[in-house]
Amino acid sequence: MLSRLLKEHQAKQNERKELQEKRRREAITAATCLTEALVDHLNVGYEPLPINTRSLPHPPKSGH
């Protein structure tokens, strides 16, 4: 009887672990999708920065 109870307990623990791991993977996937959507939304309308900084326009030098 005790060994049966122990096996049942271990089986329930394994089920809970599997469910927790499934939920963890789902949360990671959801967070990744949200992050990508936010970044995409923020990047709309922005031009990428030039890779070569020498191509940036220089401000006019003041006579001071």
Provide tags for this entry.
BLOC1S1; rod-shaped; about 60 residues; mainly alpha; 1 helix
Word description of this protein:
- Helix content is 66%, strand content 0%.
- The protein is mainly α.
- It has a domain at 2-42.
- The radius of gyration is 28 Å and the shape is rod-shaped.
- The chain starts with a helix and ends in a 21-residue tail after the last helix.
- The mean pLDDT is 88.
Distance between the termini: 94 Å
- SSE string: H
Radius of gyration: 28 Å
Tell how many strands the DSSP assignment holds: 0
Based on helices, strands and strand pairing, what is the structural class?
Answer: mainly alpha
Residue stretches low in confidence (pLDDT < 50, at least 5 long) are: none
Strand content: under 5%
Mean pLDDT: 88
User: What share of residues is helical?
Assistant: 55-70%
The 3D shape can be described as rod-shaped
Number of helices: 1
Q: Biggest sheet, in brief?
A: none
Protein name: Biogenesis of lysosome-related organelles complex 1 subunit 1
InterPro entries: BLOC1S1
Catalytic activity: L-lysyl-[protein] + acetyl-CoA = N(6)-acetyl-L-lysyl-[protein] + CoA + H(+)
Family: Belongs to the BLOC1S1 family.
List the topology elements:
Blueprint: H1 2-43
Region (Disordered): 1-23
Protein name: Biogenesis of lysosome-related organelles complex 1 subunit 1
Catalytic activity: L-lysyl-[protein] + acetyl-CoA = N(6)-acetyl-L-lysyl-[protein] + CoA + H(+)
